[in-house]
Amino acid sequence: MKIQLSMKEITDLIVKAKTDDDKIKIILDNNSVALRTLLRIVYDNSLVWNIPTSPPPYKKSIHIDLQGALHREYKKLPYFFIESNLKQAQRESMFIQLLESIHADDSDFIINHALLKKPIRTLKKELLLEKMPGIFT
After folding, report:
1. CA dihedral angle for residue 33, residue 38, residue 41, residue 43, rounded to 10 degrees
2. How far apart are CA 47 and CA 82, in angstroms?
3. CB 42 within 8 A of CB 114
4. CA pair distance 93, 8, nearest whole angstrom
5. Is the predicted pLDDT of residue 102 greater than 80, yes or no?
6. Does residue 90 register a pLDDT over 80?
7. C-alpha 132, offset from chain centre
């Protein structure tokens, strides 16, 4: 069974990759709905957070074996973009709970890349669109 890497581990591999083809291979080798969802959040400017885009006060998880947690918890991410019957305070509380329930490196990824819409160093949106058409649909 293949070990699921954290988003931070995947992005570290992408940053270290020497060629664009290597970067795409890393993405495809670690392909998951969670990874594609997070890449879309980072690179798709049509997605607008429905929570404050400043880092919330939260406690990073101290557990070390949570690399796969974000692969399960990513399903909660749409609540932070769409209008729903959740009150704003509930939505923000749910976001903090998400950050606290996943690996500390993945919570850093969500804050530093997804929430702040900061692209992954060396990975261009144009490359994703060229080599992986439909990745943002």
Report:
1. -100
2. 9
3. yes
4. 23
5. yes
6. yes
7. 17
